[in-house]
Amino acid sequence: MSETSAGAVDPRLLEILVCPVTKGPLRYDREAGELVSEKAGLAYPVRDGIPIMLPDEARKLG
Asked: What's any one GO cellular component for it (predicted)?
């Protein structure tokens, strides 16, 4: 997914967001358009620049 279709995430938002499951840090994967929680093993999608922080919407990491 390209950055234009995923939308850019505001860097200030990335500083304050945490994983809703673990309350741990997230890593922004710009190429995939996802916020990744290594600790939870989940990747949260970013749609139109808006992180979707719902565990039901997250992709499990393989």
From this structure: cytosol
CATH assignment at residue 20: 2.20.25.10
Specify the amino acid at residue 2. Answer: S
How confident is the model at residue 10, as a pLDDT? Answer: 87
Q: Domain span at residue 19?
A: 3-60
User: What tokens were used for 16?
Assistant: 């304050």
pLDDT in tens, 2-30: 444 446 888 899 999 999 999 999 999 99
Instruction: Return the half-sphere exposure (C-beta side, CA atoms, 13 A cut-off) of residue 52.
Output: 16
